[in-house]
Design a protein that fits this description.
Length: 215
């Protein structure tokens, strides 16, 4: 295989990449579209680390919508049929529960960002994997910042013909409070399984971010 034409990424790398992109645009104060990319990268990092914090060992029970909520009845029946045929073709024994979980992983949709964040504030999702797990507690300021960030991100991602802008100090009003939540989920929740040196990388990114915030 030609490695130059091969791209690989997983959910942890994806979250870290969004966080690293946030740092890039925090440093680049002169970039004309800095605000846009901060909103997009913050959203990706928050969503990514939120999913990682609650997914546990069975993400079908924590981060996916049920197929009943995301697909029509005939679509679900087709998905189950295809999944069942895969098992039978490979000669693998399965239960109905196995069938549902595989079908959900391959065809389901992730919960929305607000649903993910709501679950990071619930002990039944955050405190079942490790003794060191901590549950998120959002302040009013953080919740307001997240709401604004999501709204701006959605406008940028689904841009319609218009002119838009932001008046005020968006770093203090939006960026910094959202980063506080991301830092908690990434480094203080105790729920994320890191591999290799990925946790050290996240710690280093936040060291740089917090240095910038203090300047």
């Amino acid at each position: 295989m030609d490695e130059s034409n091969y791209y690989r990424i997983d959910e942890l790398e994806n979250a870290v990449d969004y966080l690293e992109t946030t740092l890039i645009y925090l440093k680049d104060t002169e970039h004309p579209h800095r605000f846009k990319w901060l909103m997009i990268s913050l959203h990706g990092a928050l969503y990514g680390f939120g999913v990682l914090a609650i997914k546990g060992t069975d993400p079908t029970a924590t981060v996916y919508k049920s197929l009943n909520r995301s697909m029509k009845k005939h679509e679900i029946e087709t998905v189950y049929k295809i999944t069942k045929e895969k098992y039978e073709y490979m000669g693998i024994d399965y239960t109905e529960d196995d069938l549902k979980k595989v079908a959900l992983r391959e065809n389901g949709q992730l919960e929305g960002i607000w649903s993910i964040l709501e679950r990071t504030q619930m002990k039944e999702y955050m405190n079942k994997e490790f003794e060191r797990s901590n549950t998120l507690i959002l302040t009013d300021k953080q919740e307001s910042a997240i709401s604004k960030m999501i709204d701006y991100r959605n406008q940028f991602m689904h841009f319609i013909p218009m002119a838009m802008g932001f008046m005020g100090d968006y770093e203090k009003e939006i960026v910094n409070p959202v980063l506080e939540v991301i830092e908690f989920l990434a480094l203080e929740s105790g729920n994320i399984l890191y591999y290799q040196n990925s946790e050290n990388k996240v710690e280093q990114i936040f060291e740089e971010i917090n240095t910038l915030k203090s300047q």
